[in-house]
Amino acid sequence: MPFLTSGETIVKATRTFAISAALLLGVLVPSPGAAQDHYTYTISALGGFGGSLGDDDAGLGNRTLGLGLSLLREDRVHIGLRLVEIEFDEGVMLGRLTDASLRYLTAGGEYRFLESYYESGLFIGVGLYDLEGFDAEAQLDSESGVGIVLGVTGEFEINRRFGFVVEFMGHLTSMEDSNVFASGHAGIAVHF
Asked: What is the Rg, in whole angstroms, of the alpha carbon atoms belonging to the chain?
């Protein structure tokens, strides 16, 4: 897979965001089932840990930050986007790259189950992944790919507008340097 220069990466990221936003806007009209809950949209801010499952050196203890936007499309069915960055520890080798970071944008659907004091969920989606780091000659290098994401979530309601969210996910990508990732996040969800 050819590597992209930083200008090409920006153009590709902008195009990807525009396509993802258009797809999400296509489903933003709430359906009749959404009226049964007390919100239509959710924004979440998350932090946690993650890493590569294929590289022992990279491990799963790397810092992650993420944002999410979802729409309650039908009763207990959410459709949304997640934008996350995994910042690998300094000096860690990830494939042939050091000081790497992985950024990804996923779009998918989630089905939630009502439990006694929280909601649990299963989600599946597709994603665009961009891995960037330094090669053996200390040159900045990057690789992009597509993939799938599977995960589980849990949300504990604080009140009608706020919730505490926990999620765990696994990613399988088409990238060559490293292609299997996992992450866990926790954070706050705001419903409106």
From this structure: 17
The answer to whether the beta carbons of residues 105 and 128 sit under 8 Å apart is: yes
* Angle at 149 (CA atoms; ends 66, 37), nearest 5 degrees: 70
Give yes or no for a contact between 48 and 64, defined as CB atoms under 8 angstroms apart: yes
Q: Are 190 and 43 in contact (CB under 8 A)?
A: yes
Helix (H) or strand (E) holding 81, with range, is strand 77-87
Q: What is the pLDDT along the chain (192 residues), one digit of tens a residue?
A: 444 445 566 666 666 666 665 555 554 545 444 444 578 999 999 999 999 997 777 889 999 999 999 999 988 999 999 999 999 998 888 888 999 999 999 999 999 999 988 999 999 999 999 999 999 888 999 999 999 999 999 999 999 899 999 999 999 999 988 899 999 999 999 999
Nearest to 76 by CA among 26, 42, 125, 127: 42
CA proximity to 37, closest of 96, 137, 147, 112: 112
How many angstroms separate the first and last alpha carbons of the chain? 42
